Amino acid sequence: MTSSTAQTDWWRSAVIYQVYPRSFADSNGDGLGDLPGITSRLPRLAELGIDAVWLSPFYTSPQKDAGYDVADYCDVDPIFGTLDDFDHLRAESAKLGLRLIVDLVPNHTSSAHPWFEAAVAAGPGSDERARYLFRDGKGANGELPPNNWQSNFGGPAWTRLTGTDGTPEQWYLHLFDTSQPDLDWTNPWVHEQFREILRFWLRRGVDGFRVDVAHGLVKKVGLPDYFPPPPSPDPHANDLARVDIPFWAQPGVHDIYRDWHRVLQEFGTDRILCAEAWVEPLTRLAEWVRPDEMEQTFNFTFLEAGWSAPSIRSSIVDSLAAFGAVGAPSTWVLSNHDVIRHASRFGLENPRAHRTGIGPRTEPRPDAALGLRRARAATLLMLALPGSAYLYQGEELGLPEVIDLPDGARQDPTFFRTNGANYGRDGCRVPIPWEAAAPAFGFSPSGKSWLPQPTEWAEFARDREERTEGSTLKLYRLALSTRARHDLGNGDLEWLDGYGDGVLAFRNGEVIVVANVGQAIAELPHGELVATSEPIIGSALPPDTTAWLVARD
Ligand code: NOJ
Question: Model-level pTM?
Answer without folding.
Answer: 0.97
